[in-house]
Amino acid sequence: MVIRMRHTRAxxxxxxxxxxxxxxxLAICSNCGAKHRPHHMCxxxxxxxxxxxxxxxxxxxxxxxxxxxxxxxxxxxxxxxxEVAEEAPATEEASVEAPAEKVEEAKxxx
Length: 110
Ligand SMILES: [Zn+2]
Fold this sequence. Notes:
By secondary structure, the protein is mainly alpha-helical. The model has no long low-confidence stretch (mean pLDDT 82). It contains 3 helices and 4 strands, in the order H-E-E-E-E-H-H. It is flat and about 70 Å long.
């Protein structure tokens, strides 16, 4: 910072007097009692002003099914060759042993 740009402490403090964070105001859902932003739909149940705007439960169910189908597809692809399944435990053992060696090395250095 160039000297020409420097402000007094008071000038800086006055500017920063507006930097404090404010807690967000929240309204309570009339349907489920959860807190939500005022003038916004409740994210827990999808209600706004006493009526359902979005069927959150149905959306969540559809999403879970979609993710499960994706996981099943990935599992099926990995299970296609048995070699992958056999190699996996070996790498896990190696990763478990590696940190123990590092700990021993760290003790020796001290
Ligand atoms: Zn709600």
